[in-house]
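Q: How do we represent a protein-ligand complex in a form that can be generated token by token?
A: Start from the inputs.
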Amino acid sequence: MDGKEISEPPQLLHVGITYNLKKSDRSKEQHSQSGDLEPSDNEAEYDDITTILAIKEALEGRNCRVTLLEADEELPVKLLEDKPDIIFNIAEGIYGRGREAQVPALLNFYKIPYTGSDETTLCIALDKALTKRILSTYGIKTPKYRIITKDQNQLTGRFYFPAIVKPNAEGSSKGISDVAVVTNRRELEKLALKNISLYKQDMLVEEFISGREFTVGIFGNGSDIHVFSPMEICYVNQVNQYNIYSYNVKRNYKEFIRYECPANISKETEAEMTNAARKIYEALCCRDFARIDFLLSPQGKLYFIEINPLPGLAPGYSDFPMIAEFNGMDYNSLVWNVLKSALKRYGMKSYID
Ligand SMILES: Nc1ncnc2c1ncn2[C@@H]1O[C@H](COP(=O)(O)OP(=O)(O)O)[C@@H](O)[C@H]1O
Ligand SMILES: [Mg+2]
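Then emit the structure tokens for the protein with magnesium ion bound:
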């Protein structure tokens, strides 16, 4: 014996990917089968099959056997039959304010390990106002806001215009058009009431912060948390007088946006942003990965806008893989690092090489 340890090769891992697919590519409002009017961006949060296949390919390159489990009504049966060792979850859920929590809650019910944050974190983060309220108790600065409902559509107290109107529980800029900014109470009431009926939920109205926009990616857990350097969203072409990262701009980002990473900011501002991002990630008990949006006012004040504990992973489109790429981590490594974080968290170390 020469004293060298012979290490076991990592075990083959059976990974199921849970996801919801876009079903149609619409450009206009449409009536659903039940007759409801649905907005043109109704499926903004759902994924293209190309994203699922890219994740599959990334995992197959890492000693994984991958099965595709669309998160529809049949998911409970599929999970029981498929018996994956772990789930790579990117499912947005089907319906309701807590829809992103549906799949994680089911996986907890069956005690199946999965990547990403748990149901409670996903529920809270999908409710933008609730997240802002929680984070304000941690001293995180966020734009002043009100919630407008069908029955309570008047602004109360002191509130400054312009303001932005956003569905309270959406992502991917769903419900945020290029005309989401209002300049007085009359405009606000009109837009809020229209969107409450179209998006079937309360509207979050926030004071508009004109300034620079940044998004920060994070992955890992505990002492392994890694915060990527912030990416700035810079406008090369103006959409209107308010540059907002709307649904239209995201879809046509090549026409409007130049992404800058590392962002051209001072070391102090960068540290303030990455420290805030880590604090928010930990305060909300995020796991494995997340992306956090910030605005920086011309006076240098940093505002938290929202957190995405289930950030989009569309290669060549979503911000999170773009941030990783700028920071020297290619798509396949990013996918593997997310899975690896989850494997470590569950103590499944024999699958990690
Ligand atoms: N208070 C605000 N002031 C200025 N711009 C805002 C504000 N809130 C949101 N925006 C703009 O709207 C975009 C989408 O808003 P966000 O809350 O991040 O929604 P989503 O979850 O759909 O990404 C942001 O990326 C930003 O450009
Ligand atoms: Mg956002």
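Residues 293, 306 surround magnesium ion (ligand 2) (CB under 6 Å). The radius of gyration is 21 Å.
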